[in-house]
Amino acid sequence: MDLSDRKLKILQAIIRNYLETGEPVGSRTISKFTDLNLSSATIRNEMSDLEELGLIVQPHTSAGRIPSDRGYRLYVDMLMREKQEEMEQLQVELNAKSQKLDTILKEAAKLLANNTNYASLITTPQYRTRRLKFLQITQVDPENLLAIIVLEGNIVKNKMVAISTPVDADVVLRLNLLLNSSLQGLDLKEINLGIIQKIKADSSGYGLLVGEILDAVAETLGEEEMQTYTSGATNIFKYPELNDSEKASHLLYALEEKKQLTELMYSEGDNERGIQVYIGNESPLEATKDCSMVTATYHLEDGVYGKIGIIGPRRMDYEKVVQALQNLMQELDEILKK
Amino acid sequence: MDLSDRKLKILQAIIRNYLETGEPVGSRTISKFTDLNLSSATIRNEMSDLEELGLIVQPHTSAGRIPSDRGYRLYVDMLMREKQEEMEQLQVELNAKSQKLDTILKEAAKLLANNTNYASLITTPQYRTRRLKFLQITQVDPENLLAIIVLEGNIVKNKMVAISTPVDADVVLRLNLLLNSSLQGLDLKEINLGIIQKIKADSSGYGLLVGEILDAVAETLGEEEMQTYTSGATNIFKYPELNDSEKASHLLYALEEKKQLTELMYSEGDNERGIQVYIGNESPLEATKDCSMVTATYHLEDGVYGKIGIIGPRRMDYEKVVQALQNLMQELDEILKK
DNA sequence: TGTTAGCACTCGGTGAGTTTGAGTGCTAAT
DNA sequence: ATTAGCACTCAAACTCACCGAGTGCTAACA
Question: Which of B92, B251, B299, B308 shows its CA 20 to 30 Å from the CA of B262?
Answer without folding.
Answer: B92
